Amino acid sequence: KQQSLTWFSWKKLIITIIIIVIISIAIYLFMMNKYIKASKTEGFDHTESVILHETKMSSIQDMYSYQDDILYHIAYALDKNEKEWLIFVPKTEIIKAKDNKDDGKDKKDKENKVVEKQEITEKELIILDAEKLKTQTEIESAWQKECNQCVLQSSLPAFVDDTPAWELTYIDDNNRFVMEYRSLEDSEIIEQLKLRRKYNVKG
Question: Engineering a disulfide at 151: which of 8, 21, 144, 171 sits with its beta carbon 3.0 to 4.6 angstroms away?
């Protein structure tokens, strides 16, 4: 009977530990997801203020964040006539390293630096007439016709090689992860990067 009680106690302890571990993992994943979402929208309030103050826009419909060499906030906005515009706002800038012949200089001092912009004016904004651009639905439709076995992962505006674009990430029919950039004018591919996945995740 004592042995039976001991086994029951151990079993109860193990189950309790498993439950605690599961709850801890769930809390960790929830907090990480919350942090990631917050980091993606960080600074949006300030960007909205810049757009409304520096332009003739009256409201912001939607906003995205795109990071390449420079961080951009990209917004769909309406003017007072309810006309829609797509606006690219540079949030950082590259400070080029000075051409110093002193070889004894610290290597870090010779590298370009990316810093947050302290002030953003209308001249720095890229403002496009949304009516003249392909919509998200049109771009995804063009992509789907060319890649009907692919699985879309994300779809959002981007800024590639100093050109406004649309970024699609997806898994193609060869199980490769693909980053693809398409023109906002005609939905044609501008740039494409394919990465072989090491693991095949089955649902």
Answer: 171
Q: What is the pLDDT of residue 103?
A: 53
Strands 113-116 and 189-196: unpaired
* Tokens representing residue 200 in the block: 């095949």
Residues whose CB is less than 8 angstroms from the CB of residue 164 and which lie 6 or more positions away in sequence, other chains included: 86, 88, 126, 128, 157, 158, 184
Distance CA 68, CA 111 (A): 17
pTM recorded for the entire structure: 0.70
Residues 6+ apart with CB under 8 A from 27: none
Tokens of 165: 């674009």
pLDDT tens digits, 81-94 = 999 999 999 998 76
Task: State both tokens at 20.
Answer: 């605690």
Do 56 and 63 form a contact (C-beta atoms < 8 A)?
no
Confidence of residue 7 (pLDDT cuts 50, 70, 90): low
Rg (alpha carbons) of the chain, rounded to whole number? 25
- In the numeric block, which tokens belong to residue 107? 């290597």
